[in-house]
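Incident log, support desk, overnight shift.

02:14 A customer reports that sequence design results differ from what the structure should imply. Their input is reproduced verbatim below. On-call engineer (initials T.W.) acknowledged and began investigating.
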C-alpha cells in the first residue's frame, strides 16, 4: 500500500469518528464513545503511516536530503499535516481530561479540512521543489504555521463549548454569537458536502473549484429558487440552534465539563499556538521570503491576513495578562 491509500483510510476514519462523537454527545452512550475513540486512534495511526510513507516517496523522487523531503511542500500536504496535528492535540486532551465530548466539536474541523481536500481537486502528486522553495526556512515556516493553526482550531472548539456552557440569556451577545457561529459552521460543512456530491467529477483544480464550484450547488447556484432555499435553510438551522441551545448546554454540562476547565483549555491552546505562529508563521516566513524573493514583506492577501490574525491573538493574549 502507498501513502495515498493510508491517507484515504484515515480520512474515512475521521469522518466516521465525527459522526460517532456527535452520536456520543447526543445519546451519552459509553459504548459509542469508546467506538469513536477507537476509530479516531485507528485513523491517526493510518495517517501517521501515510505521512512517513509520503516522506519516503518524496525523498526517493527529490533526492534533496532527508529533512528537505518532509512532505510539507504544497497545500495538500500542509492540510494533511494540519489535520494530523489537530487529531494529535485532541487525543492528548481526551487522554488527559478523560472526556470524549470534545470530539464532537473538534473532529468536524478535521472533517471540513478533509472535505475541502477531496472536493477542491488539489494536486495530490509529489513534485520536486523549485529552487526558490528548497530552503530550511520554508520547512520551519510551514511546520510551525500549521502546528499553530491546529492549536488555534482546538481553542476555537473549546471556546465555543465555553460559550455554550456559560450563556443562558438568548438575547445576550455571547449566546447570539455562538449560535450564529455554530449555525454558519454547520451550514458551510453541509454545503461543502453537497458540492462534493454534485461536482466531484467536474473539478480540475483548486482555482477552478473556488471560482466556479464552491457553493455552486447551494448559495451560488444559477437558480434563484435554490439560492433562496439554501439561505432560508441556513437561517432555519441557526434559528433552531438559537431556540434550543439550552439542550446543547445541558448535554455539555452533563459530561462534568466545568467552564473553568474549558476556559483553561482555551487559554493553553492559544498560549501554545500564538508564540509558534509568531516565530514560525511571521518571522521565519519573512526570512524565507527575503531569501526566495528578495523582500521580507510584499503585502499580498495571505501575508496581510496572517498579520491581522496575529493582531487578533495578540490582543487576546494581552487581555489575559
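02:41 Re-run completed on a clean worker. Output:
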Amino acid at each position: 500500500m502507498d501513502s495515498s491509500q493510508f491517507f484515504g483510510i484515515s480520512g474515512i476514519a475521521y469522518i466516521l469518528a465525527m459522526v460517532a462523537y456527535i452520536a456520543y454527545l447526543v445519546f451519552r452512550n459509553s459504548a459509542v464513545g469508546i467506538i469513536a475513540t477507537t476509530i479516531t486512534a485507528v485513523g491517526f495511526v493510518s495517517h501517521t503511516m501515510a505521512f512517513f510513507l509520503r516522506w519516503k516517496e518524496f525523498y526517493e523522487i527529490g533526492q534533496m536530503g532527508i529533512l528537505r523531503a518532509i512532505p510539507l511542500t504544497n497545500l495538500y500536504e500542509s492540510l494533511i499535516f494540519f489535520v494530523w496535528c489537530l487529531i494529535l492535540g485532541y487525543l492528548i486532551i481526551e487522554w488527559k481530561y478523560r472526556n470524549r465530548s470534545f470530539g464532537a466539536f473538534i473532529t468536524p474541523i478535521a472533517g471540513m479540512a478533509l472535505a475541502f481536500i477531496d472536493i477542491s481537486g488539489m494536486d495530490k502528486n509529489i513534485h520536486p521543489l523549485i529552487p526558490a522553495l528548497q530552503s530550511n526556512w520554508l520547512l520551519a515556516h510551514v511546520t510551525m504555521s500549521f502546528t499553530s493553526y491546529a492549536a488555534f482550531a482546538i481553542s476555537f472548539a473549546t471556546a465555543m463549548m465555553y460559550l455554550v456552557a456559560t450563556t443562558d440569556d438568548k438575547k445576550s451577545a455571547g449566546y447570539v454569537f455562538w449560535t450564529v457561529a455554530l449555525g454558519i459552521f454547520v451550514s458551510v460543512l453541509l454545503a461543502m458536502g453537497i458540492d462534493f456530491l454534485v461536482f466531484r467529477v467536474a473539478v480540475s483544480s483548486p482555482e477552478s473549484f473556488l471560482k466556479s464550484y464552491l457553493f455552486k450547488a447551494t448559495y451560488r447556484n444559477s437558480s434563484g429558487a435554490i439560492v433562496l432555499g439554501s439561505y432560508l435553510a441556513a437561517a432555519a438551522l441557526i434559528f433552531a440552534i438559537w431556540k434550543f441551545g439550552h439542550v446543547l448546554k445541558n448535554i455539555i454540562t452533563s459530561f462534568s465539563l466545568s467552564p473553568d476547565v474549558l476556559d483553561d483549555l482555551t487559554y493553553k491552546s492559544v498560549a501554545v499556538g500564538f508564540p509558534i505562529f509568531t516565530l514560525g508563521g511571521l518571522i521565519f516566513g519573512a526570512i524565507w521570503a527575503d531569501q526566495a524573493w528578495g523582500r521580507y514583506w510584499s503585502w499580498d492577501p495571505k501575508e496581510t491576513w496572517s498579520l491581522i490574525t496575529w493582531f487578533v491573538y495578540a490582543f487576546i493574549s494581552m487581555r489575559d495578562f
